[in-house]
Design a protein that fits this description.
By secondary structure, the chain is of the alpha+beta class. It has a domain of about 80 residues. It is about 20% helix and about 30% strand. The strands form three sheets. It has a four-stranded antiparallel beta sheet with strand order 4-7-1-8, covered by helices on one side. Strands 2-3 form a two-stranded antiparallel ribbon. A hairpin with a 2-residue loop joins strand 2 and strand 3. The chain is globular and about 45 Å long. The protein starts with 20 loop residues before the first strand and ends in a 15-residue tail after the last strand.
Length: about 140
């Protein structure tokens, strides 16, 4: 318990503060690879939104198999399949402020096709932009 009864102890709330770590959020967008918006793949529209918003970055991961309640079937990758309908997950890790700013726009992109958006608090460590390399002469 903290010395001040009105100030909650961060450790009691599950928040940890480790040296070198910063509080961030991970936003995950679960969509199908066949989802489109404005004539282009939805995952590209999401990446473009993150870039245009000055986001730290985003990654698109493709599932090898997946199930959703909406389709009631298991989709899996096959060598002969020309058109697959597998799950894609777009992961975005950034500050809470940037994630909050992105959410309404992401919801607008995802809503027509359906999907799932999750947000999770996490601690990030050693994220460096390309121009902020550790130990480089530029930082000396």
């Amino acid at each position: 318990m903290s010395d001040n009864a009105n100030t909650p102890d961060p450790a009691s709330q599950g928040h940890h503060s480790h040296e070198g770590f910063v509080q961030m959020q991970q936003l995950a967008v679960y969509i199908q690879e066949t989802d489109h918006v404005g004539g282009r793949p939805l995952y590209l529209a999401i990446l473009e939104l993150v870039r245009a918003s000055g986001g730290a970055g985003a990654s698109v991961l493709k599932g090898v198999a997946g199930y959703s309640a909406s389709s009631h079937s298991i989709h899996r990758a096959g060598f002969a399949d020309l058109r697959q309908n597998l799950t894609l997950v777009v992961l975005i890790v950034d500050t809470e402020e940037r994630v909050d700013a992105l959410l309404p726009r992401l919801e607008d992109l995802v809503r027509p096709n359906g999907g799932l958006i999750t947000v999770q608090d996490l601690e990030g460590h050693s994220y460096l932009h390309r121009h902020e390399r550790r130990g480089s002469a530029d930082n000396a």
